[in-house]
Amino acid sequence: MAKLVVAIAAVHGLGRRETRHLLLTDLDLDHGRLTVRRDLKHTVYLDEVTHALATDWLSDRYRRWPLTTNPHLLVSQQSVADDRLPPVSTMVMNDIFRPLGLSLSKLRQDRILDEARQTEDPVHLMRVFGIAAEIAMKYIYPAHPERRSTLWR
Fold this sequence. Notes:
The protein has 153 residues and is mainly alpha-helical. The protein has helices at residues 2-12, 16-20, 48-64, 90-97, 104-118, 122-129, 133-143, and strands at residues 27-28, 33-36, 42-45.
């Protein structure tokens, strides 16, 4: 599960809350995509590594807890027993990143900034990461300071 969570943040730029609340039904391995439920639905197209990690996690999840009815994609030993519990706690998510010496949010920000450095197109960032135009521009400006207009005095 930890490897999948890191890939979801590092490759696809999902945040902690949206990662924690993914449902099993949000993952479509046959078509290689993951639906992220936000105000506007966002579709993530899985790369080979994330697809393989998701497949491995599902195998491990079903092997360890074959009778669980918890609908969340990510579950822990505590949350698997009750489908009314949240998927995994914030503490579990933090514990995944602690050995790496960073946080999920920092990894997510770095991923989006890296993509912004590759493109000057905020619409590309909006499509890839499902972020709003204002947020996309907050990444474009540091990556391409020449794009920031200067005001006449």
